[in-house]
UniProtKB/TrEMBL annotation:
Keywords: Glycosyltransferase, Transferase. The lineage of its organism: Bacteria, Pseudomonadati, Bacteroidota, Saprospiria, Saprospirales. The keyword Magnesium does not apply. SUPFAM superfamilies: PRTase-like (SSF53271). Belongs to the ComF/GntX family. One of its GO terms (molecular function) is glycosyltransferase activity. InterPro entries: ComF/GntX_DNA_util-trans, PRTase-like, PRTase_dom. This is Phosphoribosyltransferase. It comes from Saprospira grandis (strain Lewin). The keyword Nucleotide-binding does not apply. It holds the Pfam family Pribosyltran.
């Protein structure tokens, strides 16, 4: 009773356009915005532009970024809100949507654990949540695979990555992670997830630690930065 009343006076608005009121069953996006976010379908192919980035760098089974990133587009706005606008539900909703696509493919059903790239505790405290973990949680819900933050942790604070070259970034982040309880991951299929992939240096640094547990590794991010 209360919810329809609240909706009447304070309609929940679409998080992307911030104009359209959301229908009851819609959690974050209106129908028109939902249609404007285009899945890449990279998860259907072993060879794709994201997987290619890791060739010769990492032994990865499959890699995908979920949606096409268009400068100034809806997805860019959503990711900005997810990271800086205190909207964790955006990560969850994108994860649920993409998880439904992954669940249609037998390969992705073989994932044992979803592990998000950890955020430094200080940053997590400021933001209130780890956006990669919210994405992991949405994927987990649709895929029916558990996610966990207990295995991969952030060890030390890294300076802002934005003004560094690829080599500098890599040197900077490679020692920033710690793997715990590696024995529980042994021989499992792990899906490492993050929000936006830029150079892939953070993924590489995390993967280096995870691969010590003799796992098979796949990577799924929300989008690939142009
Ligand atoms: Zn909208």
């Amino acid at each position: 009773m209360l919810e329809p009343l609240l909706q009447l006076f304070y309609p929940r608005l679409c998080l992307a356009c911030q104009r359209q009121p959301l229908q009851r069953q819609q959690r974050a996006l209106c129908t028109s915005c939902q249609y404007k976010i285009k899945p890449t379908n990279y998860h259907l192919f072993e060879e794709n532009p994201v997987a290619e980035r890791f060739w010769g760098r990492l032994p990865i089974s499959r890699a995908s970024t979920a949606y096409h990133f268009v400068k100034g587009g809806i997805l860019q706005r959503l990711i900005h809100e997810l990271k800086y606008g205190h909207r964790p539900e955006i990560g969850e909703e994108l994860g649920r949507s993409y998880g439904r696509l992954l669940a249609e493919e037998p390969f992705w059903k073989s994932v044992d654990y979803i592990i998000p790239v950890p955020l430094h505790p200080k940053k997590r405290h400021q933001r209130g949540y780890n956006q990669a973990a919210r994405w992991a949680s949405g994927l987990s819900e649709s895929l029916g695979v558990p996610w966990s933050e207990k295995f991969l942790l952030r060890a030390s604070y890294t300076e802002s990555q934005t003004r560094k070259s690829r080599e500098e970034r890599f040197a900077n982040v490679s020692d920033a992670f710690v793997l715990r309880q590696a024995d529980k991951l042994r021989h499992k299929h792990i899906m490492l997830v993050d929000d936006v992939m830029t150079t892939g240096a953070t993924i590489e640094a995390c993967a280096k630690h995870l691969l010590k547990a003799q796992i098979s590794l796949s990577v799924v991010c929300i989008a690939l930065a142009p």
